[in-house]
Specification:
Elements (H helix, E strand, L loop, with lengths): L2 H18 L12 H12 L14 E3 L6 E12 L5 E11 L3 E3 L1 H12 L2 E2 L1 H16 L3 E10 H4 L10 E8 L8 H9 L3
Parallel strand pairs: 2-5
Antiparallel strand pairs: 1-4, 2-3, 3-6, 6-7
Helix pairs in contact: 1-2, 3-4
Length: 190
Amino acid sequence: RAENTIQPRIEHIIADLLEAIGESPTRQGLRDTPQRVARMYGELFSGVGLDPKDAIDAVFDEESADPVILRNVSFYSVCEHHLLPFFGSASLAYVPNGRIAGISKLARSLDLACRRPQVQERLTGQVADAILTALTPQGVAVELEAEHLCMAMRGIQKQGARVVTTAVRGEFPDGRWDGNSLLALLRRDS
């Protein structure tokens, strides 16, 4: 998408929004707000139209068949229902099937999937699907735990409530591991 056409549109919309709530977009404190918000939205939604599997671009042949686990990866996304943030921690695991990824690429895949209007349930599945597609492992497990500001600061106003979602993918053909055992590894205290 052409950044030079999107930025002015978002700026105009934000100025209209400020006027609609009774504020003046020309007031000193708000004068640059439409531009700041437009830049921020460009960053927050930079994953729209991109495939999270493409972030897993450092793949190596390796005969390991033992689980690879990445825990406590912080993430931030925006709830598509209220356009408010949700944020938390992700844990990812896969059982290699002759291929491994550069570990930071798993976190990049998560970040890319986060950078679009999202629901946590879909986000969890998109990350698991990206790992499965990019690496063709025996199996994958992903768990996200997040607080949603749409629930904490409006509506029911329950601060600190956490939503946990999981996704398990794969066949686990060698029988040593399965989805439940991977999820257990994700949840084990370090």
